[in-house]
Design brief:
single chain
């Protein structure tokens, strides 16, 4: 089998294999300023934008779903409570709860404004629900989160009376958050640094190719001629 037949069977060389890495390296050296400027501009703009944003604090409570004011040992009842817990996750993030919080705290908010800062999720395969409220004021974040827990408990008690009623009790109240969750200039700056470097390399190669197209075409022909 001659070399031509062997090359045909192996298929054409990939584009990556035909590109001379030395040529790419020389292009990056020639256009190094493009990489540096891209990284500096993107990273600086990202950090500056992050620092200009108001801090957002998160306060969370944990609610436990039970029956008759206690946890049940009955496997069937436990399975039922697990299903109910999923429904409670949806119920806690609704307008009646938000309206109750607004009335109790005298907030100058609409229910929609309150709910957009609320998140609720079930904690694993348990009967616990974590409710989080986000606010620029850490003290207010704590007060709203705790009030949501009490209002929600009252709402559930009102629609589920009786000795075997479903209950929603605040297991762990919120505390005043000490550090903002967002923005995070360090995290955002690192991500911008990585993305800026990738974009800078791409722009550097593009600018070098546009400024010296003949040199790149010759280098590509020379590298392909080796196959």
């Amino acid at each position: 089998m001659d070399d031509r037949t062997q090359n045909t069977l192996n298929g054409p060389p990939s584009y990556a294999a035909t590109v001379d890495l030395n040529v790419l390296g020389q292009a990056l050296v020639r256009q190094f300023w493009v990489v540096v400027m891209t990284v500096v501009v993107i990273t600086g703009a990202t950090i500056g934008f992050s620092l200009a944003q108001p801090p957002e604090y998160e306060a969370s409570i944990k609610i436990i779903i039970g029956q008759g004011g206690k946890l049940t040992q009955d496997p069937v009842a436990q399975a039922g409570l697990m299903d109910i817990t999923d429904t409670m996750v949806v119920a806690v993030d609704t307008r009646p709860v938000a309206q109750g919080v607004i009335r109790k705290l005298g907030l100058d908010y609409t229910s929609k404004e309150v709910l957009k800062n609320v998140s609720a999720q079930r904690i694993g395969a348990t009967q616990f629900i974590e409710v989080t409220y986000t606010d620029p004021d850490p003290e207010r974040a704590k007060r709203v989160a705790n009030t949501m827990g009490s209002v929600f408990s009252e709402e559930i008690a009102g629609i589920s009376p009786g000795s075997d009623a479903i209950t929603a009790s605040v297991w762990e109240p919120a505390t005043v958050p000490t550090s903002p969750e967002d923005p995070d200039p360090i995290r955002n700056g690192f991500m911008a640094l990585v993305l800026g470097a990738m974009l800078g390399v791409g722009l550097a190669l593009l600018f070098d190719f546009l400024s010296t197209p003949g040199k790149h075409k010759k280098a590509l022909r020379d590298s392909r001629s080796e196959y």
